[in-house]
Amino acid sequence: MSTTSSSNGLLPTSMSGRHDDVEAGGSDRTQDEHHEQLEHDPDDPFDLDNTKNASAQSLRRWRQAALVLNASRRFRYTLDLNKEEHYESRRRMIRAHAQVIRAALLFKLAGEQQVGAVASSSTTTPSASTGNFDIDLEKLVSMTRNQNMSSLQQHGGVKGVAEKLKSNLEQGIEEDEKEVIDRKNAFGSNTYPKKKGKSFYMFLWEAWQDLTLIILIIAAVTSLALGIKTEGLKEGWLDGGSIAFAVLLVIIVTAVSDYRQSLQFQNLNDEKRNIQLEVMRGGRTVKISIYDVVVGDVIPLRIGDQVPADGVLISGHSLAIDESSMTGESKIVNKDQKSPFLMSGCKVADGVGSMLVTGVGINTEWGLLMASISEDTGEETPLQVRLNGLATFIGIVGLTVALVVLVALLVRYFTGTTQDSSGATQFVKGKTSISDIVDDCVKIFTIAVTIVVVAVPEGLPLAVTLTLAYSMRKMMADKALVRRLSACETMGSATTICSDKTGTLTLNQMTVVETYAGGSKMDVADSPSGLHPKLVALISEGVAQNTTGNVFHPKVDGGEVEISGSPTEKAILSWAYKLGMKFDTIRSESAIIHAFPFNSEKKRGGVAVLRGDSEVFIHWKGAAEIVLACCTQYMDSNGTLQPIDSQKEFFRLAIDAMAKNSLRCVAIACRTQELNKVPKEQEELDKWSLPEDELTLLAIVGIKDPCRPGVREAVRICTSAGVKVRMVTGDNLQTAKAIALECGILASDTEAVEPTIIEGKVFRELSEKEREQVAKRITVMGRSSPNDKLLLVQALRKNGDVVAVTGDGTNDAPALHEADIGLSMGISGTEVAKESSDIIILDDNFASVVKVVRWGRSVYANIQKFIQFQLTVNVAALIINVVAAMSSGDVPLKAVQLLWVNLIMDTLGALALATEPPTDHLMHRTPVGRREPLITNIMWRNLLVQSLYQVAVLLVLNFAGLSVLGLKQDSNHAHAVEVKNTMIFNAFVMCQIFNEFNARKPDEMNVFSGVSKNPLFVAIVGVTFVLQILIVTFLGEFAHTVALSWQLWLASIVIGLVSWPLAVVGKLIPVPRTPMSVYFKKPFRKYRASRSA
């Protein structure tokens, strides 16, 4: 994949052929050379550019290579590598001992007095009947769990069970709140007790696990004991007590931040689990939460749905269930009257049907399983892995520096060259007491350990989790629910989006606007005038029976008819209703004996309908040109059958004309079938393929689905951001082209030539190599199958693209899984599609997809801001302490002060910078390069400018501070040194506060733009400033500071303030195009290559 730096140098691109870095000047280097320098390094455990389907071995490898001080905190949000094994063992146990586990759980709930809807009836001894119902809860649970056919027959089959549950197999239970509450009280609710999340005290305990903090506490206790022994309680507690208090403050602030983060993830997980589904209540199809399903509910099942509760099949056609989530066996099980039991948590793999709910919540195996396992919210993200690598490198440098400081201070101390603040030599051989030596050594050791605390950026990898938690919460408001953390940041690297048409680029609000029936175009699309009653009757029967939708007539006169189903189904049902279709009458007068549910491969669906006892009609409905090709005759306006040959061209032209007007074309056709050719046995009937030849064309309808408002602008934003939008649709190529032109995906008619627009069939038939070549040029793919979409994704990824794909159907699951980012639709998407996706677009709107791209780029940009800020602090703090320790045997920044700086840098800095909202500026860049270094050349320039300035100022203050600050005249030398050291500490913190603004905009001159839109940033900077005043002014003995005059405060602020104009000047310095990391890595690679040669 060709990668070049972006025009701003901060967020490089992964697109090929992009413009050069304008700040870098000219470059003769080819893109291939650049790619070579940024290629994958197999020896680097942290070089993982995609964690979506990464192996457990590679994930385990980077964890073992990371330098970690607090493993429980650092790896809290990483994937549990033993999760599958644990899940499988729990599933096997529940399958084997479900009754015992359920009883134990009920007992526990009763003991905790959580006798809510889940267990209120179950905690008592079951009686002969439960409430007002004629069947016992325990018998129901036992029958379903053991899949006991004889027990079902004893109750009178599914019809008998429904009667005992006071439910209607066609209309469901009454739509009445009291009815639902009664059922919850009698049979439980469809919820299960969740495993409690970690308490705040657990987060405190985990924050305490940091090795350096434990060492500091031990050192503080030692110092406290020695201080009290030598100086008494009044003065002796200060050194040790101040360090202990500072460490406790760090632990509490860390725990509070982590706890808030965990609550955000918990809320998002609750949102993910809350599935919306349709049930039949009072004859109406209503949408409810999965938690509101009750025993007795009648639930329609369609391909891609999750079975929401245990139940018994009422009726079904080609219904196949994937039970692998419960049985562990990856095979599809066909469901019919011989095998009617359905298990909660399983998925509908094929077909349609309806079920009667017989068990909910912890009365199901799925409920018991969910109650016994904790949901694993952990997952590596590529950025998280890379930041662990960066933190490890910085940590090693920090440890080395701390060791050098420790040795230097100890050598200087024991050679008698270290003096205290009054100028007296601290160690005199033979005179200094053992307790003083130990006390002084503890202080030296404490300083070295504190340097490790500051130097090892333990919070750096966790900043990713912080910014992702913030982004995920905000993305919910932008109608995007993130299921996988890594997708959030990978979206920032997306170079192409393969989008569906229907519902994503269009509104999914369909109406029939044109009709061809009786051999000609109808003047009014939904008027029966001019059509023979026989033709209207056949159309009505075909529409009423060959549908998964429903028409509900309210009992109250004058009430509006309610039509439910998919948008296409609703449009056709509404059209047929206006033609005079009597939905309920047709369904009662004829029966479906076999069905072929709509199939996205064949683009059509059909049913065989038995009229009375002698007549069988087969009705088909689907893509107009495909159904038309199967027709040999049509019915004219007189109700007479005519050969279609002479009219076929007329119908083709009609389809083309409607498609060019952005209409979705659907044809309705039928044929008769001799009864003796229909299989009699159920097994043979289930395997019977409906005849699809010699059909009679009844009607062709053109359905209008308008473009979404704002979609054209969203496509324009994507294009300007270097993200190519491709449309992949099952619709006619002409319809696809018309919508693409309307949305701005195609700029003009002249672009609409092959392979820019292509049919799925044509693309499918190319060789793999040809597909890779053609994929680059495809903008619109029409009449595509889910497999065509998968092939396109694979070809684009092989070309180096980072691919985002939208999908809503079950068959889209492979493409969603294969893509770098799978985006499923929240409204029209099936549960299978949602589970295979990384992000759910809650409003099905393409504009929301573009917002996800902005957030993805924002995540990466915010992390880079934090890195720049943190490294500036690291470099300055380490250099000043090392130089001072080597030269004078003392350090100006004491342990408590360094811990405060660490708090500013790690927790508060992350909160301030990692929660910056996305800006439009992010969409003026090309996509983030996944192989590009985290620290870009612009960041190196910025942090070196600021670090060198801070080091220079602090060193001047350290070595010439008494003169510069006019303190030489002070008669009290010890006080003068304390003022100087306080000034160094104060100036250093002021530099960090002002530099925090610079870190907001690493590549922009105006660092204040948009600052008012981030109140958290302003609040943190304000709180930091106020706390600094309090520490210096009122906590002198505690923090080793003295109160400063207003002149010195002004000087400190001016020193910090200089960082702003300095940042502007620094941004005028050009940077080389080649990343600095390339130069760092070259010697190591050459060394490794020579070793392996």
Automatic annotation (TrEMBL):
Function: Catalyzes the hydrolysis of ATP coupled with the transport of calcium.
UniProt feature, compositional bias: Basic and acidic residues: 29-40
EC number(s) stated in the UniProt entry for this protein: 7.2.2.10
Main location group: membrane
NCBIfam families, per database record: ATPase-IIB_Ca (TIGR01517), ATPase_P-type (TIGR01494)
Chain residue ranges for the region called Disordered: 1-51
Keyword set, alphabetical order: ATP-binding, Calcium, Calcium transport, Calmodulin-binding, Ion transport, Magnesium, Membrane, Metal-binding, Nucleotide-binding, Translocase, Transmembrane, Transmembrane helix, Transport
Localization per record: Membrane
Chemical reaction(s) catalysed: Ca(2+)(in) + ATP + H2O = Ca(2+)(out) + ADP + phosphate + H(+)
Name of the top EC class for this enzyme: translocase
Protein name: Calcium-transporting ATPase
Pfam family, one: Cation_ATPase_C
Topology of the protein relative to the lipid bilayer: Multi-pass membrane protein
